[in-house]
Amino acid sequence: MVTLDMNGFLWLGVASTAVLLAAILFDGFDEMFDALDVGSPWLSLPVIAAFLAAFGFVAGASVDPLGLTVAVVAGVVAGVLFGMGAVRLSAMAMNMPTGVTDAEADLLASFGRIVTPTAPGRYGEVLLDRPAGPLKVACTADVAIPVGTEVIVVDVRSSTLVEVEPFDPQNQLDDPTRSNPQ
What we know:
The chain is α+β, with helices and mostly antiparallel strands. It folds into two domains: about 5-95, no CATH class; about 105-170, CATH 2.40.50.140. The protein is about 40% helix and about 20% strand. It has helices at about 5-25, 45-65, 70-95, 170-175; strands at about 110-115, 125-130, 135-140, 150-160, 160-165. The protein has a five-stranded mixed beta barrel with strand order 1-2-3-5-4. The longest helix is centred in the middle third of the chain and has 27 residues, at about 70-95. It starts with 5 loop residues before the first helix and ends in a 9-residue tail after the last helix. Residues about 175-180 have low confidence and may be disordered.
C-alpha cells in the first residue's frame, strides 16, 4: 500500500513550481505540451502547474498536523485559488493595452538629433522625438552632419532608415522657394 507523506507532496510542489517558472521564463516551453491543449484557459500549462504547486505545498505542510484527508482538501482549495490567479494573470497579460506603433509614414517630418555623424554615401544615426518616446534609427543625408545637429526627416526609406536634413527654423522662414505673399 502506498502512503502519502509530507515529502511526496512537497516534491510535487517543487517540481510543479519548476515547470511553472520554465513556462514563464522560456517562451516556447509550453508549446511542447500543445498536443494536450484542449482550448480552455483553465487547462493551460501555467494554470495546471500553479494548481499542482499550491496543492503540493499546502498538502505537504498540513498532512502531519491535520491528517491526510484534511490536508488534501486544503491543498485542493489552495490549488484552485492559485489556478484562478494564474488564469487572471494570463488574461491580463494577453489583453494588456499597448501604445500605437509608429508606421513608416509617421516618421516623415519628425524632428531629431544626430547621434552618429552622417556623410554622403555613409550611414549615421538619428534619435527622433516621437510621441511614444525617443526612437533611434539609421539615417542618410546629402551633406555631412555632425553629432548633436537638429534634423528633420525628409524621406522614409524603411522603418529603420530615414533621410534627414539639418533643421534651421530661421532658414525655413527665409527660404526663397516658399511662396511668401506680400
